[in-house]
Amino acid sequence: MLEPTNNNELPPIPGKRYFTIGEVSELCAVKPHVLRYWEQEFPQLKPVKRRGNRRYYQRQDVVMIREIRSLLYEQGYTIGGARLQLSDNQQKEAPKNDPQMIQQLRMEMEEVLKILTL
Question: What is the domain count for the chain?
Answer without folding.
Answer: 1
